[in-house]
Amino acid sequence: MDRLTEMEAFASVVDQGGFTDAAKKMGISKSAVSKHISSLEARLGARLLNRTTRRVSPTEIGLAYYDRARRVLNDAGEADALVTSMQAAPSGLLRISVATDFGVNHLSPVLSEFLQDFPDIKVNMVLNNRFVELLSEGFDMAIRVGELEDSSLRARKLCDTKKRMIAAPGYLEKYGHPVRIDDLNDHKLLHYSNQSSGNVWKLTAPSGEKRQVRSAGWLSVNDGQSLLNAAVSGLGIAYLPSYLYADAMSKGLVTDVMPSLPSETQGIYAVYPPGRFTQPKVRAFIDFLVHAFADKGVDAW
Questions:
Q1: CA quadruple 118, 121, 127, 129: dihedral sign
Q2: If you ran DSSP here, which 8-state letter would residue 134 be given?
Q3: What is the C-alpha separation between 289 and 107, in angstroms, rounded?
Q4: 204 contact partners, CB below 8 Å, separation of at least 6
Q5: CA–CA dist 156, 171 (Å, integer)
Q6: Which of 61, 120, 197, 285 is deepest in the core (most CB within 10 A)?
């Protein structure tokens, strides 16, 4: 007889507490369940069940076997589910969390192509500038920039971006170019208020020395696009990723404040909940994003 079927029959008898209910659970006759159990015990050379007229219960050996058998059956079920899910067409509601500036400027423009490619998927893109808990808040995935703090999540890199200090040419004409990192103490700094490190810029000097600039700043905003707008209008110096400032810099609206400093390269990641299997809709969207952003990165942004 089939070994897995014997295991399933035995586990069902233990789970259901008897042959009759186990037979109903499996959709076979009571006598067939009995034959599977007898064949299993004969093959193993051990009695796995105590049988009385009133009840059926596992022996000590049966309990130990049940624990391992249940694991095998669960793994077999998950293997079947994996094949099914991999063949299933991506569909359903996809909830995405993404920072407002990245969502508006870079994710929204490519969504139409994705939805045309996968008409059975509906997207709910939530734009916010806070760290969301994917599982507890019901998100399928998120786009995050920089070091990933939650190591329990699965992640796939989409591309890189680089951070630099930028300011409008008019601001630098009025207040002068800072030459050294210490010169920043005399300038008007524009901060991103949602940073976990607070109003602190972590910079690398030309010598390779790691430095920190701490300043209350002239303006703090919880949105990167608003910080860029403030810099463009001449309010001060902002420290921003290139995916935000690249277009403004190409138009001459802002310039690199201290080009002698090494830039900080950050990864842009798609993150999603842990687990053995990735939902087809999530896998489809991440594959799409990897392709869509394949030509992006520190050179393009």
A1: negative
A2: T
A3: 9
A4: 210, 211, 261, 262, 264
A5: 39
A6: 285
Q: How many residues comprise the chain? A: 301
Those residues with Cβ within 8 angstroms of residue 64's Cβ, 6 or more apart along the chain or in another chain: none
Global pTM reads 0.68
Burial 267-296, CB ≥16 within 10 A → b, else e? bbbbbbeeeeebbbbbbbbbebbeebbeeb
**Token duo for residue 80:** 């079947």
Q: How far is CA 248 from the centre of its chain?
A: 30
1 in Cβ contact with 28 (< 8 Å) = no
HSE toward the beta carbon, residue 215, CA cutoff 13 A: 24
Question: pLDDT tens-digit profile of 21-79?
Answer: 889 988 999 999 999 999 989 999 999 999 887 788 999 999 999 999 998 988 888 77
CB 72 within 8 Å of CB 6: no
In sequence order, what DSSP letters do the residues of 203-251 get, joined into one string? EE-TTS-EEEEE---SEEES-HHHHHHHHHTTS-EEEEEHHHHHHHHHT
CA distance 232 to 204: 24
What is the amino acid identity at position 165? M
Instruction: Compute φ and ψ for 141, nearest 5 degrees.
Output: -165, 170
